[in-house]
Specification:
Structural class: alpha/beta
Shape: globular
Order of helices and strands: HHHEHEHEHEHEHEHHHE
Number of helices: 11
Helix content: 25-40%
Strand content: 5-15%
Bound molecules: S-adenosylmethionine
Number of domains: 1
Strand order of the largest sheet: 3-2-1-4-5-7-6
CATH architecture: 3-Layer(aba) Sandwich
Length: 276
């Protein structure tokens, strides 16, 4: 089969980093996760994935994915018929990993990404792809229609690429249209944001982060008083139960990273917020 060149915008190209992380991990003996679908997609794409081979930040991306997966699993055990919305879904396979057979899922990304995604994934009555910028409020009508249950929004490695005014707009949109919902997001603070030119994976693509946020709790509460921080972790302060499930080499890697207290690791946070 001819491999397809992914025709993606600059920010959109970043989706290939976590995709490759999951595909490459699948081939390892002690894997954080296995994602045969990611392997198949990588094999179909005409792109120089070799540039990401062996980069340490791929492990960071996988740990982030595991934590976001855990937040979805927790949400679905409390709300089996709830709604999960992946903002900036890229070619993520979260549905394949944690769907419970009952929830409604929306997978939203910019039109060029959704066009590519449609080559590898299909809509079902419970699973819908949405081609839109997250900043365009029209998509919220599609999510609101036909469901009034609780919502979990996931923005994994997405919001740092937006301008702060756009992130503020997205938070307003979610809080206005889906009050009380949960929002999982990562934030880039000091040590991480300022060193992005040297970041092992980002320095191999053109996109750069634009939203600097040292503390999601205070920023979001300032924008929307009443926002609660449900959880906030760095890669060196993951929930103990998640850490305990990692293969031994990864537990050792995380404890070595913790001992180093690198500003790059400490300045990157994974947050779960409840909007007012
Ligand atoms: C680093 S990738 C992460 C992809 C996916 N969340 C994952 O973890 O595999 C960033 C994603 O954000 C998407 N994105 C960036 N700006 C966006 C916007 N304004 N609206 C929707 N998606 C956006 C990109 O197209 C890309 O798919």
């Amino acid at each position: 089969m001819d491999r397809e060149k992914p025709l993606l915008g600059t920010v959109q190209e970043t989706l290939l980093i976590p995709l490759y992380a999951r595909a490459a991990e699948t081939r390892k003996e002690h894997a954080l996760l296995r994602d045969p679908h990611a392997e198949e997609i990588v094999a179909c794409l005409d792109y120089d994935f070799g540039r990401f081979d062996g980069l340490p930040s791929l492990t960071g991306a996988l740990l982030r994915t595991l934590l976001f997966d855990e937040w979805v699993a927790d949400f679905l055990s409390a709300h089996p018929r709830g709604t999960v919305v992946e903002i900036g879904t890229g070619l993520n396979t979260r549905y394949e990993r944690v769907d419970n057979g009952l929830a409604r899922w929306f997978e939203l990304d910019l039109p060029d990404v959704i066009a590519l995604r449609r080559r590898f994934f299909t809509d079902t009555p419970r699973r819908t792809m949405v081609a839109s910028s997250v900043t365009d409020e029209a998509w919220t009508a599609e999510v609101s229609a036909g469901g009034d249950g609780p919502c979990l929004f996931l923005a994994e490695a997405v919001l740092p690429y937006l301008d702060e005014a756009d992130v503020h707009r997205v938070v307003d949109l979610l809080a206005d249209r889906f009050p009380g919902s949960l929002l999982a997001l990562d934030t880039a603070g000091p040590g991480f944001f300022d060193t992005q030119e040297q970041h092992d994976a980002l320095s191999r693509v053109e996109a750069r982060m634009r939203w600097y946020c040292p503390d999601a709790g205070s920023r979001l509460t300032h924008w929307r008083p009443g926002t609660e921080t449900v959880a906030s972790h760095t890669l060196t302060s993951l929930p103990p139960a998640l850490l305990a499930r990692l293969p031994l080499p990864y537990r050792q890697m995380v404890s070595a990273l913790t001992a180093q207290r690198l500003p790059q690791a400490e300045g990157y946070r994974l947050n779960l917020m409840r909007l007012p």
